[in-house]
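User: I'm putting together a small comparison set for a docking exercise, and I want a reference complex before I start. The sequence is below, and the ligand is pyridoxal-5'-phosphate. Could you produce the 3D structure with the ligand included, as C-alpha cells?
Assistant: Of course. I'll restate your input first, then give the C-alpha cells for the complex.
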Amino acid sequence: MAPAPRRTEPLAFFKHGLGAKELDAIAAVFAGRILTTGDTVLDFERRFAEYLGRRHALGVTSCTGAMHIALIALGIGPGDEVITTPMTFVATSLAILETGATPVFVDVEADTGNLDARRVESAITKRTRAILPVHLYGQMCDMRALREIADRHNLRIVEDSAHCVEGARDGIRPGDLSDAACFSFYATKSITCGEGGAVVTDDDGMAASLRLLRLHGVTKTAADRQREGYQEWDTVVLGWKYNLSNIEAAMLLPQLERIDEAWQRRETLAARYEERLRRVPGVSLPTTRSGVRHARHLFTVWIAGGRRDAVLRELCVAGVEAMVNYRAIHPQTLFRERLGTKLGDFPHAERIGDDTISLPLYPALTLEEVDEVTSVLADALYSVA
Ligand SMILES: *Cc1c(COP(=O)(O)O)cnc(C)c1O
C-alpha cells in the first residue's frame, strides 16, 4: 500500500454528532420550568421504549447506575453471586459489587469476546442469583442459550447493553429475554448526552421498583410537586440519586430520530474496514455470528504476537487515535483483592485484552479516512514486525 500522507491534526477516535437540533432542544427545556426529570425525560423514555420494543424505559444518570438498581430491584445483594465477563469495562462488575454481591467471572468465546454460554453452568453455585452478560463491541451474546441456563437454574438476567442499542441476534433484541437491559449515553457511546443511561424492562413490577430506586425511594418527584402542588410524600425504600434530567433527555431525542441512519453509516464504514483489513497480514477480526445485526459501537482489530502496544504507538505517531477496549479486568487490583482473581484465570479474555485495538468509528468518519487508518495500520504492522 502507498504510504499514508502526514496529517496536520490527529484523526479523532470519536466525534459526537450533536449540533443545532440538540441545542434547540436544550433551549426548549430552558424556556420551560423544569430542568430536572420531567416531560422531556418522559418523552425520551416513551420513544426509547418504543424503539426497542419494550414496555418500559427509565432514564438514569449512567449505565453503571442502571445495572446497580436493576440488580437491587431483583433482590440481589450480600451473599449472592452474579456470573459475568472479565472482558468489559470495569463498571459491569462494579455494579455487582455495589449491591454487596460477588461477581463470578466466566471466560469468553475466543473468536467474539462475548461471555461463553457453554462455560456458564460450571460456574453456578447455590449462591448464584443472576447472569450479567455484556454485548461486546455491539454484537449480542447468545441470549437464547443464556435464557435456557437461567431457566434451568432459576436465575435472573440483566444485560449490559452499553454497546448495543441497535443490535439484534436472530430477531432477539436487548431486553427480550432478560429481566432488564441497561444502556449508556456516556460521552463516547453511539447516542450520548455526555453522561446518562437507561434501563428497559417488560415487567411492570420491575419498572415500578426501578422508578423508586432511581430517585431516593420517594413517592413524589420535583415534576409531580410542580404539577400538582405540594402533596405529602413518603420514602418507602432506600433509593439512589440516578434520575436523568430534562436537559440530558433533550440532547438524546434528536439522536433517537436519526439512530438507524447513524447505525447504517457505521455499518458502511465497518464493511469498508473489513474489506481493506482482510488483506493485511497480522490483523484478525472478531467473528460476527450468523443472524447477528451488529450494533457497530466499536470497530475492533486483534494484533497477535505481543505487538499491540508497539502498533498503538505507531498509530499515535501517525496521528491516528485508537483505544484499548478492554484489557481483561480480573487482574486489576480491586478484583484481585476482593475476588482473589489473577492473571492466567481467563486465557481467552486475557489474549483478547493483550491484542485488542479499537479504531475510529462514527458517522462523520469518511471512507477515505477509513482507508487512511488501514494504511497506517498496515505500515505500523510492517515496521514493528
Ligand atoms: C460505557 C460502559 C459502561 C458504563 O457506562 P456509564 O454510562 O459510563 O456508567 C458499562 N459497560 C460497558 C460495556 C461500557 O462500555
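Residues 62-64, 88-89, 91-92, 134, 160, 162-163, 184, 186, 197 surround pyridoxal-5'-phosphate (CB under 6 Å). The chain has a mean pLDDT of 96.
User: Thanks, that's exactly what I needed.
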